[in-house]
Amino acid sequence: MTKEVLSAIQDAVGTQVFGIWFLIGAAFVFFMQAGFAMVEAGFTRAKNAGNIIMKNLMDFCIGTCVFIPLGFGILLGEDALGGFIGTPTLGIFTDYANFDWSNFVFNLVFCATTATIVSGAERTKFLSYCIYSAVISAVVYPIEAHWIWGGGWLASLGFHDFAGSCAIHMVGGTTAFIGAALEGARIGKFTRDKDGKVTK
Q: Diameter of the chain by CA atoms?
């Protein structure tokens, strides 16, 4: 269904116009990085503001480095394992002239947005966060986004996620929840009474 719709749009308005529209959308999504940086720096302690902003920057830097050779192919490559994963491809290097650059940039900024949802975790060590950013950008986001937008098994069942509420926000929120559970409460900030209730 999605391929037929995209084909009809491209026939009607032309490939260049569609590519430009993709890049305009990508620019808006990319600017979300600045929004995340501001809101997260505002909600954290002043001493951690630089840490938060650096994490936002590294999401895009590290994410781009791993999304180019691995993530993009997993996301939009040919189905493998029954639609569970896409086949990685190096088309960005081997077929430079015919590569779909606007589609790549559009998916890259969404990948970085997924990773940056967790960047507000002010107590996370910077190196640990960089490793997380690489893993989610290279493997986690591309696999689950392939299920939905890459023609994977969820898409074949008729699942639609037009605005990224599942493919981006749910995945980012789930990883943030896992990270918070692993990190735990600040030592000494919360105590329990004899009944086990948390008190300050």
A: 70
User: Per residue in 76-118, pLDDT tens?
Assistant: 887 777 778 888 877 777 777 777 788 888 889 988 888 888 8
Predicted confidence (pLDDT) per residue in 53-66, tens digit: 888 888 889 999 99
Residue 39 phi/psi, 5° resolution? Answer: -70, -40
Average pLDDT over residues 34-43: 85
**Alpha carbon distances (Å) from 12 to 5, 6, 7, 17, 107:** 11, 10, 9, 10, 23
| Distances from the Cα of 80 to the Cα of 7, 74, 107, angstroms | 23, 9, 20
pTM of the model: 0.79
User: How far apart are alpha carbons 114 and 92 in whole angstroms?
Assistant: 22
CA atoms within 13 A on the CB side of 179: 22
Partnered with residue 115 across adjacent β-strands are none
Q: How far apart are CA 139 and CA 137, in angstroms?
A: 6
Copy the structure tokens of residue 100.
């779909």
Distance, in Å, from the CA atom of 107 to the CA atom of 145, rounded to the nearest integer, reads: 10
